[in-house]
Amino acid sequence: MGDNEAGADCSAPDWCGIEWTRWFPFSMESTRTGAIPDTPGVYRIRVAGAANLMYIGRTERSLRNVFREIRQGTARMQMPWKDPYPAAPALWAWKDAKGFLYEFSAVPLEDSEIRRKTGLCYLLYRYRQEQRDSPSCNFGRFHRKYRSSSTEREGIAGGPLGPQDQKNPAGGPSASPLTPTGSPGDAGWMGLAWSPKRELKAHTTTAVPQAQGIFLLFDGGTGPLLAVRRSDNCSQALFALSKNPPAGEPMTYMFCCEAKPVAEHNLRERECDLVGNYIELHNEAPARQFAEE
Fold it and tell me: What is the pTM of this model?
């Protein structure tokens, strides 16, 4: 799905073999945004002139409108709501803390919503492999000295934390990217210690730890990988699935649970690494990966 060369320039106009637009500064005049595609697609945001990225996103709407609305949100005196753009409060927090000036680059991708979700996951996977880090505002990551705003309906404003407040756990470090090795179904795929494959039945899930982790769902006994799922309680999640399997399909599963609790954004990073590697191997996402999102 593009150029996989390690150390590639994620700000380049051809990153991952994609023809990106030029970088548009958030400070540009509103009348000059006509060069930004007026279609669905994927986009990236960086601090002006920086080599790394702050955020990679996708939209089912107009990329031009996304640019305008995120730019307006980050320019406000108060932190914007997290709807419709969850990254907007995080970008605002970093701008407020560091005075960052942002730039926007995009690529139209009109095929389908599944294709855009697949493309976004792959780009995040490639970024983590190349930079050994995640963009500062993906996976729910946030500035550690700020709290996020809620949705507008919930009406809870975000902003700087006080000196006595606990630091935002979403501001913790990114998890190291998983090492591409093996293939789905292998006991050591991506360097993790996977359980043996089991039939997805209620009685088999009792052996699964009630702990955070990732599990893999396969089609029948020897079928392909259908989905990668993260959970704060793998045992409960698999038990629930055993009672109501997607589309009533017979499934098997493997799991890898965390030895101790990890931050939510770290679990999401692991899930992305696994799905991204599958995309790299097969040029498509697992068949049911995005079916229920």
Answer: 0.94
